[in-house]
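queue> pop job 88
queue> type: inverse folding (structure -> sequence)
queue> payload:
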């Protein structure tokens, strides 16, 4: 999952202010989160998510993937442990209609563990998604196993569990920018160490959680931005550069990420980075 936010790099006092965190969550919601829309669509189409589906999103961010599932008729719930600000945006985005007639379909959102959004005796989930890509930083799957272990008992037997990973570096233009995090972060901290995605990353996570792999796919998800400033804001909102910022400072990371983005800037000023992401469908026991 996305690394926990490093809360020490934006304010002169050494702590990230609530306003800073809110702005960063907005950057995620307005710029970055939409980059994986082709992935969400491909997964929902393959699994025929719609009326009758009960979907649980792990690391639901600001709720775009949940909103797309709800628009297909699914009942949705989500948990977001890393950012209270993203979760607040998800609540705004998924604000249900009022009235008793909507009570059963209201999205359930909470921080922390999956059981926080699941009432005793509620029908089991038929789809569980973990859309935050793993496989570009060493240890970025840590914590996902615990989330899956908490979610599996809440899912129906044979329910689909979707895991997502970065594709091979040669097919992910953004890899060259992510390497900035490796170069700037203090290697003694053991964080933010970029590594190429491995073919069996997702299978290893699934099998470690007691899930049975049952198919996979690849989806092109280009990262496109209006300009360099938008690209910088979007990428920093992911949290993948937090350790680099903590080890150096905001200005240096801004400068070096912007420099790494220049080769991907087109003549009209837009930034375009083709990427491929892989998803795995696994099944609960």
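queue> result:
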């Amino acid at each position: 999952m996305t690394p926990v936010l490093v809360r020490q790099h934006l304010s002169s006092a050494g702590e990230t202010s609530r306003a800073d965190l809110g702005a960063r969550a907005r950057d995620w919601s307005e710029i970055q989160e939409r980059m994986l829309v082709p992935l969400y669509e491909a997964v929902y189409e393959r699994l025929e998510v719609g009326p009758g589906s009960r979907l649980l999103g792990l690391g639901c961010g600001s709720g775009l993937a949940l909103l797309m599932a709800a628009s297909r008729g699914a009942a949705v719930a989500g948990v977001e442990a890393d950012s209270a600000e993203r979760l607040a945006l998800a609540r705004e985005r998924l604000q249900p209609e009022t009235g008793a007639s909507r009570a059963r379909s209201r999205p359930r959102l909470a921080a922390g563990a999956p059981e926080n959004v699941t009432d005793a005796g509620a029908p089991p989930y038929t789809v569980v998604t973990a859309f935050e890509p793993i496989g570009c930083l060493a240890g970025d799957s840590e914590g996902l196993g615990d989330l899956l272990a908490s979610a599996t008992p809440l899912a129906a037997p044979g329910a689909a569990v979707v895991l997502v990973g970065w594709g091979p570096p040669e097919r992910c233009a953004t890899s060259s920018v992510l390497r900035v995090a490796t170069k700037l972060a203090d290697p003694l901290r053991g964080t933010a160490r970029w590594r190429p995605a491995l073919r069996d990353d997702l299978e290893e996570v699934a099998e470690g959680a007691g899930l049975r792999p049952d198919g996979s796919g690849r989806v092109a998800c280009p990262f496109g931005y209006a300009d360099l400033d938008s690209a910088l804001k979007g990428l920093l909102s992911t949290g993948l550069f937090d350790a680099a910022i903590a080890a150096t400072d905001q200005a240096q990371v801004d400068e070096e990420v912007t420099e790494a983005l220049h080769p991907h800037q087109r003549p009209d000023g837009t930034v375009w980075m083709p990427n491929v992401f892989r998803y795995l469908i696994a099944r609960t026991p």
